[in-house]
Amino acid sequence: MKKLIIALMLLLPFGLTAQEMKFGHINKSAVLELMPEADDAQRQLEDMNLKYRMQIKAMEEEITKKEQEYQEQADSLDATIRRYKETELQRLYQSYQEFGKTAQETLSKKAQELMTPIEAKINKAVEQVGKDNGFLYIFDVTTPGTFAYMSDKSVDVLPLVKKALGL
Fold this sequence. Notes:
By secondary structure, the chain is mainly α. The chain contains five helices and three strands; from the N terminus they run H-E-H-H-H-E-E-H. Helix content is 70%, strand content 6%.
């Protein structure tokens, strides 16, 4: 923020007056919520997540069943069979953990893959609105607490970006 103020102070002596400085703001999350592409991406991610949760549930049920069988038989098993069953349970649990980690990584990667072009489209529209309407800066106010103060003279460019995106 200090760098922005210093940059603005440097521009003033070169003929840029306060009246010529035009600032805008936008909540990119609000734009994202309006985009049909984002809804489609969200549905795809939810479908993937559901499939992974179903698989995880099946794995949990298998582990629970094997643990119960082992506990019921543990006292009557000889040492070799007991070790085999314990190793089998450890393998199942390890597989369960690895699957959960891999599923989370895959979901995260897919979310990035789906959202990157949508975010790029929004950024391009914001940039175009900025150029077309003579804004010096357009601030994204998506993250709360970014600004201590926002003047009512700051222009909300959401309607302009929606128009640029055909929303």
